[in-house]
Design goal:
The structure is a homodimer. The first copy, chain A, is of the alpha/beta class. Helices cover 43% and strands 11% of the residues of chain A. In chain A, the strands form 2 sheets. In chain A, strands 1-7-6-5-4-2-3 form a 7-stranded mixed beta sheet, with helices on both faces.
Amino acid sequence: MPTPPLAGGLGGPAALRPLIDTVLTALHDGATLRDGPLPAGGPDTVTPRTRTATHPLIPDHGTGPHHALRNLVTALAAGAADPAHPHCAAHLHTPPLALAAAADLAASALNPSMDSWDQAPAASALEADLTTALAAEIYPHAPSPDAVITTGGTEANQLALLLARERHGPVQTICGANAHHSITRAAWLLGLPEPVAVPAPTGTLDLAALDEALTELHRPLLVVATAGTTDTGEIDPLDAIADLCATHGAELHIDAAYGGPLLFSPTHRTLLHGLDRAHSVTLDLHKLGWQPASAGLLAVPERHHLTPLHHHAPYLNADDDTEAGLPDLLGRSLRTTRRPDALKIAVTLQALGRTGLADLIDRTLATAHHLADLVTKNPALDLYDHPTISTVLLRPTGADDHTVATVRRTLLQRGHAVLGRAHAEGRLWLKATLLNPHTTPQDLQALLDLITDTTADLLTGTTTDLPADHLTRPPATPTATHPTPHPTESDTPR
Amino acid sequence: MPTPPLAGGLGGPAALRPLIDTVLTALHDGATLRDGPLPAGGPDTVTPRTRTATHPLIPDHGTGPHHALRNLVTALAAGAADPAHPHCAAHLHTPPLALAAAADLAASALNPSMDSWDQAPAASALEADLTTALAAEIYPHAPSPDAVITTGGTEANQLALLLARERHGPVQTICGANAHHSITRAAWLLGLPEPVAVPAPTGTLDLAALDEALTELHRPLLVVATAGTTDTGEIDPLDAIADLCATHGAELHIDAAYGGPLLFSPTHRTLLHGLDRAHSVTLDLHKLGWQPASAGLLAVPERHHLTPLHHHAPYLNADDDTEAGLPDLLGRSLRTTRRPDALKIAVTLQALGRTGLADLIDRTLATAHHLADLVTKNPALDLYDHPTISTVLLRPTGADDHTVATVRRTLLQRGHAVLGRAHAEGRLWLKATLLNPHTTPQDLQALLDLITDTTADLLTGTTTDLPADHLTRPPATPTATHPTPHPTESDTPR
């Protein structure tokens, strides 16, 4: 076999062209084979089928690029839960825009690494401008807003806790019971005290309980509020929380991984009032920004807040190189090698502009409101609440939690729909996180029909196409390693 | 503007095709404009040019996808340090294979997220098989080898220290003075004691000094050895270090980010003897594996060693879902949303096979040996040593450190070559990290000619094409935040 061609250089584009043609054909073939939001049959079917199609992963003699691309990409597409399908709506799992995926190809081909200027001359300039511009969207009145690009909200939240730790020592984090799991995980990682969870009985952080916690706990304190919760897409009362933090001398981090991009919508940005009072803000453009993973951000109002990330490695940022004018980029991340995620984000923002992005956001939120309206009109379904952003919780009227969980798994198992789950008001709900701006009212009605039909099937026992154990398995016995997190969740079969 | 199309679904490939055509044309145009390994002029030229070409990043009204892609991708390519150019050889900054970059497009288009099965049915099966297969390459005799995919060696090293901390509490890390900077950074991040640095006067960790440190320090201890150092590409005496660790009851982590893929070469794998005695191993396939960033791995000999990463988030891995057979993937990373980097790696391994990958590795190492031979034959250049992997240190004969640093910056400034720098034997060297399997002997000779010609220019003062301050700037004054790390480095101008 001749030495396989590289993606870069003058010859790269010509080498890529036929390979990409194979990839696009395989993506289409895989989607045709799948024929729905995800393959039917669950892991018991998909895992062995994928394994067979891709075996052997490390052959002695290669099968050549076209065969391997056709083989593996077809298998991946045939076995995908494709967020571009309107019935794939479980998670904050966005369907990427074609233009963003196309831009990301250039990042792969050129392979700039963001840890030193001499690996990314133009990419580092682009990233610096983009992070400054995005930080200024979040902190329009701050003296020197800045941001660093992360692998997502989880890393951004981790950095927020790390920066607080470096400013104040072993800071005590206080977050709502509605906060993302990454807050607790970050505290564990960083050797910080376990976060104190303030109740959020109505879905948002309870202000009286927060006031009490701030009064009782010793400083230094870091409050984490959420703008767009994972379970219900609600937004904590940011401005009132900022007031309490100011009163008690606590710092505030806002996890706006989900809700942050509402800033681009003149219609919806008022939902984020108070966001710019935070010491740091998490934002993910691989959620309401339609980027392929990953496109996370941590923003701060003043550039010098990022100083604790500065780091010295003579091969990357020797003093005399820095002194001679080579930018020192190592302190822009905890990673070293780092992909230029700024490119796809910048292409998207320039291609769409503020108005185009606002249109996508407004369209998506309107879709969610329409789904909620359809639920309220359907006597077989209960609605949790009208959505704040684009998360709609619903459940079959009168169903117990076990049935709700089984409806979700049955839809998955049949390959009919990918819905999430969330606890609220002591009950389990089906969760539809709408992120697809192309979803139509007909798609939404079809999704509700799938839910009600599946519920009826389950309750009348006409689910003979499913393995019995997926429906009648007895409640899980909690183990030491996996304690039941929500004692309110009833697993008792009807 | 109509709602822009998505990358996924049945219509995605057709939407992607014209956009990708624009990207490939822009990559070619940018490479033509650049006409070399990197643009000339340094940051003072590249940064404003990039800024002008890409301004405004967030316009009110979008310019449309083709304009934005053409504009930004051309700017990025024109301003790239392209590792596919044979004279771009500073860092472990690989030129990706076209087939790997093409595979990565499918990851962007489908956007599976690896944190739950219902976002990545086939991708999670593929990742599980791939990580098991790669771990078995590293630990061929272990009972249940496993690995997790990381953003690179930095995250893998961080996980290694984290796993040791979770097993033993506040573990004391001992590493060589030749270890990667990420070891120290990981200890800081995790709240662990600062690593003890054992001397590595000849480039590899000194065994007597390690023995002494292991004797003096209190357990629990974690020794970090390096297989492929950043500065010289040398490999610590792994087997002897494993013996010392066994004697003293210390654990061993091996950072084989660079050298690990030598396992695939029957010719060179003996260099890694002892690798499988480590409690964990870091490996980066975005170095000697020709993947676009990122493609890191942390491997362990027994699956249960990864248990401390297990994590519970009811929306992703509810007990009853796990009990019903949905795989629990959240514990495969500290990240939540996570790109399927397994795809490009699997495509590469299947396309090339062991023999094809071994051929790339052998070819690259032969290139490095050829460069070293050329240096030894050149009276104007000194060679540090024959390369162990593919890193060649050289310096103009008789030059002082300031001249060496200036030669490097001059080559960068002129857009002629991207070379790294490293300290060894108390002196500063130019570093060529060869990772391009297409580099020819003629390319290498031309690179050496560039070095000797530039040195002659500098020493005879014929460098009028450069801004004066890039050559005559006085030595940097060490600051509190950036102390000079190597007191042996002389910055005194001649």
